[in-house]
Amino acid sequence: MPSQTATPPANTNPTITPTPLKAVTAKKEGLVELVKLDNTIKLDIRYATKNNFVGREIYKEARAFLQSPAAEAVAGIHENLKKQNLGLVIFDGYRPLSATKLFWEITPADKKKFVANPKSGSRHNRGCAVDLGLFDLETKENLEMPSEYDDFTERAAIDYAGGTQQQRKNRAILQKAMEADGFKVYPAEWWHYDFQNCPESRILNIQFSEIK
Known about the structure:
By secondary structure, the protein is of the alpha/beta class.
């Protein structure tokens, strides 16, 4: 019978799951609140309402954060869009890992491409992904796209050929603006953009109320 204090054999092919970082590291990780950079950025944080695919509030506060380089890029894109009398409306930014776990658990298997596996986390959990659209600076109304936000159908795809000409034009304006400044669209979701210079090793599970 082996000793209980014996050292177990080394795993020659370990599976590494990133460890969620706690609130004490929030400042170090550089999360920046978007409206602190430009208070004309519009917030429409759906997960702080019941108007989302879960059907209930996930966040207790309607706030949006990104890592500093990504946040500054978003603010710059928003400023450039003002020349077209447009602005960015933010649906979601940094997302705690606890929310990602919930989304994964409740999403049917055939829709999993629309949510991230919490085992590896997403760029939302790293503060390097943003869900967003466009709004008219004068009317303050969101511009129409070929689908609604969090539409789990083919209408959400960036290359979806349906919808109206104006909806497709709006989608193209958003894509051009975002991809000109460090972001890349997720093909299945016209609203989801990943910041390309993102550290892949750190996942956060910090609640908004813990971020000063």
